[in-house]
Design goal:
Length: about 220
């Protein structure tokens, strides 16, 4: 009996060595650090099927929203490299906003944001950039995109300024208090600052805006 117990103990003593041999040395860099996992602060979604009751106008707005996102992501930098086939494909894009830095919807900004501005959508929503018109104005629909971004940013607790609300017209899926009026005329710098959206990261760590387009919906997420 003593001999059997001794052999059993010897066998048990071998197990840790065998596991170490099979698994290899533990590498701390491979361990998941819970603090490195992103935290979802907010998420909002916009259907591109119901931007307007008239199908022609709805399609114009849809295309302008997707073109605006293409300029934001850098997929399009000018009208000459615009491909509607590419723009309307599903996509994902994200950008980071460091503490104290500002995103504005276009580059004609209020003086107080000039030093903190690091990101815009890189567009002015006009015909020369390929934006479409529904017979009323070029770029119709980009206010809808700005409004859903505004909503997501406010839900995330970021510092947001909207000088001109879009409460003069309904934006489907977006409560009126989050509506944003957007206009930019690159030939009249300084006159469009109040029709803009300003988002400043007031947190002590970087945040990321994530954009996704799929199944005719645009999703905006803010993560920390």
């Amino acid at each position: 009996m003593q001999l059997m117990i001794k052999k059993s103990l010897q066998a048990l003593a071998i197990i840790p060595l065998s596991l170490s041999t099979l698994l290899g040395p533990v590498n701390n860099q491979n361990l998941v650090n819970p603090s490195s996992n992103p935290t979802l602060l907010s998420q909002r979604e916009l259907s591109l099927d119901n931007r307007y009751g008239n199908q022609f106008v709805n399609d114009v707005m849809k295309n302008n929203i997707l073109l605006n996102l293409a300029y934001l992501s850098g997929k399009v930098t000018s009208k000459k490299d615009l491909s509607w086939e590419e723009i309307t494909k599903p996509f994902q894009y994200e950008f980071k906003l460091d503490p104290g830095k500002t995103f504005s919807f276009h580059d004609d900004v209020l003086a107080k944001y000039k030093n903190s501005l690091v990101k815009t959508t890189n567009a002015h929503f006009n015909a020369s950039e390929g934006f479409k018109t529904d017979g009323y104005l070029f770029g119709d629909g980009v206010c809808h995109l700005a409004s859903i971004v505004n909503w997501a940013a406010k839900d995330a607790g970021l510092e947001v300024e909207v000088p001109t609300n879009h409460d003069f017209a309904n934006i489907p899926d977006v409560p009126r208090e989050y509506g944003v009026s957007i206009y930019s005329n690159p030939f009249s710098i300084g006159s469009n600052t109040r029709q803009n959206l300003y988002i400043t990261n007031n947190k002590d760590k970087s945040i990321t805006f994530k954009f996704a387009y799929q199944n005719n919906k645009v999703k905006v997420s803010v993560v920390e």
